[in-house]
Description:
Blueprint: H1 2-22, H2 36-39, E1 44-48, H3 50-55, H4 57-66, E2 69-72, H5 78-81, H6 91-102, E3 106-113, H7 120-123, H8 129-146, E4 153-158, H9 171-176, H10 180-191, E5 196-201, H11 208-223, E6 230-233, E7 236-238, H12 244-256, E8 260-269, H13 281-300, E9 306-311, H14 320-325, H15 342-350
Amino acid sequence: MKLQQTIMSNIFILLILILAACGTAPIDECDDSESLHQLADFPVGVAIDMSLLHSEKIYADLAIEQFNSITPENAFKAINIHPKQSIFNWQTTDLLADFCNTYSKRLHGHTLIWHDQLPNWINDFQGSRDDWEQLFREHIQSICTRYRGVAASWDVVNEAFNNNGMLRNSVWRKKIGDSYIEKAFRYAHEADPDALLFYNDYDLAMNETKLKAVLGLLGNLRLRGVPIDGIGMQMHISIQHPENTQIARAMKDIYEAGFRIHLSEIDVSINPLGKIINPTAELLERQANKLAAVTHLYNEIPHRYQYGMTFWGISDKNTWIRYHFGRDDYPLLFDDNYEPKPMYCKFKEAL
Ligand code: G3I
């Protein structure tokens, strides 16, 4: 009986050891000698919320230590930077530009032209097509001129397509016509010829129709000499969707069409259906594996097409997903207390 008990307890210990060896590396074993951007062969970026940058020291410390590319999460959106027709609010964006300069971070501007986050004065603007075009040009060129030589790149046009592959009927399209996309790139280039210019959108891996439409339009524009350097695949993904094969196919289609790829707004939802959940070890491990798979795929594309992987925030507690969808979720690299999650360690291994 005693022998049987000893054998059983040894088997139990062995099982624990095997499970520990196969599972995600415990956080305290996560290699801390190098930060994310030091390990990566491409820039590793993060979307920055300016109020957190000033109010939470640990947030700023992590931004400085872990990332070498910065995308302003909201500061450059028209509603914030251009609140009245005659007023540009440069205060916040200048501070961000100083931050990038001080800490040698690449600044990726987001976003010049979008249907969302527009101030009332633009939505309500009355004028001819020429007046609209002037407003549009002034908006783009005032911003690009001020940050000429400072912003390395811009999301020039954001989310211009519907999911069915048709152009979204945004205020810009209604007032200026379909050519607003081409014009946006040309005006941005005129104001800063050295900045790299991107088209940015969501669900490009998940939605083949949309990807085809985007590549069709951008390909045609490029043939006519419109300066478009790359495509931002936003990558608001979940542990289930899209399939890794879909992500691989979309990346291939994009770089084979000659566009750089910026994984521009990464977060990995563990609760896309908005259930009541706990971030269990199993869910966090699936999340870590999903990001690792994406990273492996990104590592496989030719280096000259890799513009970088940018996370849409630092800590779970500030993710847009929680306040936008009102759901419990844990999509980022650091938890609510800024502790690194399994996804952070697996990402490091995958880099
Ligand atoms: O500025 C007000 C602030 O004064 C107020 O105290 C606060 C109270 O809730 O609201 C603040 O504005 C919010 C802003 O985020 C800053 O936190 C807006 O209501 C809120 O709508 C806004 O959400 C942003 C969203 O874009 C706007 O559509 C998210 O932070 C931002 O992460 C999200 O980012 C977009 C990308 O730009 C484009 N791709 C999709 C992505 C996710 O929606």
